[in-house]
Amino acid sequence: MNPVRLTGRLALAATGGTGRIAIFAGRGLAGILPLQAGLLFRQIIQIGWLSLPVVGLTALFTGAALALQIHSGGERFQASDVVPAIVAIGMVRELGPVLGGLMVAARVASAIAAELGTMRVTEQIDALVTLSTDPLKWLVAPRLWAAVLTVPILVGVGDLVGIMGGWLVGVNALGFNSATYIANSWAYLESWDVISGLIKGAAFGFLVALSGCWFGMNAGLGAAGVGRATTNAVVVASVAILAANFILTGLFFR
Amino acid sequence: MSALISVRGARKSFGSKQVLAGLDLDLAEGESLVVIGGSGSGKSVLLRAILGLETLDSGQVLCRAKPMQGRVRDDFMDSFGMLFQNAALFDSLPIWRNVAFRLLGRMPAAKARALAIEKLDRVGLGPEVADLFPAELSGGMRKRAGLARAIAASPKVIFFDEPTTGLDPIRAATINELIRSILDESGVSAITITHDMTSVRTIADRVALLDHGQIRWQGPVARMDDAKDDYLRDFIAGRARPMARNTEPG
């Protein structure tokens, strides 16, 4: 095929796809009104509450490992005292939101895509339409908003647990005094460090739910179609989180 | 009888495969129309097009001679019931909520539940089924629950998509009788998609045979056996026919 024509086709396909996803996301977000509190609450439990263990454990081990790394690296230039501050700043600015987002992507994007994909191939979504119910209102809106509202809370909890992981290692393995470690953790932390991380959490939650809903609602036929939708949802959500993290970090800290 | 639903010049292709090829069809008020045809003849696409789940490439669907769009479509969507091939009950809801789904926004939950139990009873399911989930029911029970959902809001027209698929002959006959009795007592219009000739003889007032995206034969069910159309005769008798390559339907 003519390279110019091929480029044009690819550009048109990319633009069209982006437009369709943007409309899907906009209609999904707007579909929360009138509020159906029961549907939203159920998704808050599914997406937020049930993700707490995996996000907490990830943060705990990450904070602990970070403390070991900073201590070991810092010793090279006699700066091992900075462990508490670096662990705290690293967790709240970067590792808490990104690792929390990735863990939620693995757990939630796949679950949403599998559930909606199965509903699609078993005609449950068609059944919703025939019962005068907009699937975007009934299925997509509660998931999008639940993720946007709960992932920042998960990130906040992850930040605290990660700092605690650093403290555990700092006090028990690296010889820090407990009170000094805690004081140094907060001393260099600014409110914007925390707030920017929570904003990232909301953005990542949106991307995770959007990816799960988009691929689920557009799943191909049969078990293979649902399987592909699930895989694509996790892969796209993970890459989108990393890309969005780079863009947001540039916006917030340059 | 005036046409409740009309399909005019319906064309639909998927890639290079033309599924509907300028099809015309009418459903009269109070009539039970059964659309038969081989797999891939376009039956399901026709049904989905009438329901607005599939967009036609050209042609239109009319409701009482008005195009099925805007307010006409909204009113239509509020006044029909549908039994899906595999029932399509919502996995996350108990049976009574599935049956009362359309009613729950219109009346208190207790009243909707009572009505759902009444409809379940109408299709031969006891109140003990109300709080079970779809995964806890057999295929035949799911089909009945789907039928209860289809009739729950007293629809003016009901669509049945392969109502006996996946059922043993006794359960299939039970579902056919149930559908016929519901149609007789309520007087609603119905379109049924099937290739089960027992269903046709039990449910149909009129039969339309779909072939290659067009109506090949249509007429009262009583005249079906006397039709001269070879394909219809083979279809009724279940006789094998040579099949064109790559036409096995999707």
UniProtKB/TrEMBL annotation, chain A:
The keyword Membrane applies. It is a multi-pass membrane protein. It comes from the Bacteria. InterPro entries: ABC_MlaE_roteobac, Permease_MalE. It is found in: Cell inner membrane; Membrane. Keywords: Cell inner membrane, Cell membrane, Membrane, Transmembrane, Transmembrane helix, Transport. GO terms for cellular component: ATP-binding cassette (ABC) transporter complex. GO terms for molecular function: phospholipid transporter activity. The chain crosses the membrane at residues 21-41, 47-68, 144-163, 201-221, 233-253. Its main location: membrane. Belongs to the MlaE permease family. This is Phospholipid/cholesterol/gamma-HCH transport system permease protein. The lineage of its organism: Bacteria, Pseudomonadati, Pseudomonadota, Alphaproteobacteria, Rhodobacterales.
UniProtKB/TrEMBL annotation, chain B:
Signal peptide: none annotated. One of its GO terms (molecular function) is ATP hydrolysis activity. It holds the Pfam family ABC_tran. The keyword ATP-binding applies. SMART domains: AAA (SM00382). Gene3D superfamilies: P-loop containing nucleotide triphosphate hydrolases (3.40.50.300). It comes from the Bacteria. PANTHER family: PROTEIN TRIGALACTOSYLDIACYLGLYCEROL 3, CHLOROPLASTIC. This is Phospholipid/cholesterol/gamma-HCH transport system ATP-binding protein. It comes from Paracoccus sulfuroxidans.
